[in-house]
Amino acid sequence: MAPGADLLRLEQSVDAMGSTFSVAVYGSERETMMAAVEAAFGEVQRLDNLLSNYKPASEWSQVNRYAAERPVAVSPELFGLLSECLEYSRESQGAFDITVGPLMKVWGFYKGTGHLPHRAEVLAALTRVGYRHVRLDPQHMTVSFDRPGVELDPGGIGKGYAVDRMTAVLRAKGITSALVSGSGSSIYGLGAPPNEPRGWKVSIRDPKDANKTVAEAYLRNESMSTSGSYEKFFRAEGKTWAHIMDPRTGYPASGMLSVSVISPRTLDSEAWTKPYFINGRQWAAQHKPNQFRIFLCEDRTEKPCAWLP
Q1: Do 198-309 and 1-53+155-190 fall under one CATH topology?
Q2: What is the band of 1 on the pLDDT scale with cuts at 50, 70, 90?
Q3: Inter-helix orientation angle 76-91/30-51, to 10°
Q4: What is the mean pLDDT of the segment spanning 210-222?
Q5: Distance of CA 299 to the CA centre of its chain
Q6: What is the distance of C-alpha 229 from the center of its chain?
Q7: pTM metric for this prediction
Q8: CATH 3.10.520.10 fits domain 1-53+155-190
Q9: Using one digit for the tens of pLDDT, what is the confidence trace for 242-276?
């Protein structure tokens, strides 16, 4: 089909993994497009059964249930994903931590909007948090914990991984132009939409006003993920407490309002928003890979939002 010729657009969404995943595709044959989108939705449903910590039969839940008692054999896919998570933890100096689950629970963010715990509760939860408690055995493809109470939380990587997998399915089905989104916070732009060679235009919202945009970007075979303190928070003792937890201190990170990361993979962009949010602008500038673009909104009055140079 010649450039600029009319293409069909198909847009659909599905609920999975506690999120809403949406897909918009362009193409010339509706049946091909529909089959591709259905296959992508089938993939995210498969991942829900693999990675959910709400489904008792999922592989993820089996690890949480038994890994403190004995090594748990897992699929190569889950082993590879957990290996990457531990690498994120090492590279981020512990700011990203797949074992943050006990802290999210004690702060009330696991299924609710949060509450202020007693310091003793936080200290008790911290004894069960730490990526170093997770042992991976590549020879036997097993996962084990070195103490009881350790719990893996897929919240920091699940959406990003699903978006990447859905995109791979669309590519395999012949789709060359698509926007895949997990709850609007993890997005991948495949190719470019018609008449916009720069890619898919995405907006970064003002963390203090959902009706305002503070920046725009174009995604062409790239992802963007955003983490913001406005997603889940509560107020107590004259202070706002947000859900982005520093797993090293046991307390929500402060000083940042939102971080957006653009990178080749959505798994990477979603995982790295947390360390950049927690560790701050200076650390982010020192640890930014060349292929990343990072937009930060800091909790300050003067020029709070800017792209990292």
Answers
A1: yes
A2: very low
A3: 70
A4: 97
A5: 22
A6: 14
A7: 0.95
A8: yes
A9: 999 999 999 999 999 999 999 999 999 999 999 99
CATH of region 198-309, choose from 3.90.1520.10, 3.10.410.10, 3.10.520.10, 3.65.10.10: 3.10.520.10
Phi and psi torsions of 80, nearest 5°: -65, -40
Dump the DSSP string for 40-102: HHHHHHHHHHHH-SS-TTSHHHHHHHHTTTS-EE--HHHHHHHHHHHHHHHHTTTSS-TT-HH
Q: Cα Rg for the chain, rounded, in angstroms?
A: 20
Summary mean pLDDT of the chain: 95
3: pLDDT strictly greater than 70:
no
Q: 59-152: CATH homologous superfamily? A: ApbE-like superfamily (1.10.3980.10)
Where in the chain are the domains?
1-53+155-190, 59-152, 198-309
**Burial of 61: CB neighbours in 10 Å, binned 0-12, 13-18, 19+:** middle
Q: For residue 5, name the pLDDT band (cuts at 50, 70, 90).
A: low
Task: Dig out the tokens for 78 from the structure.
Answer: 């889950």
Helix, strand, coil percentages in the chain from 3-state DSSP, rounded to 5: 35, 30, 35
Average pLDDT in the 3-32 region?
A: 91
φ/ψ (deg, to 5) at 68? -80, -20
Q: Which two tokens stand for residue 30?
A: 């509706």
Which residue carries 């509706």 as its tokens? 30
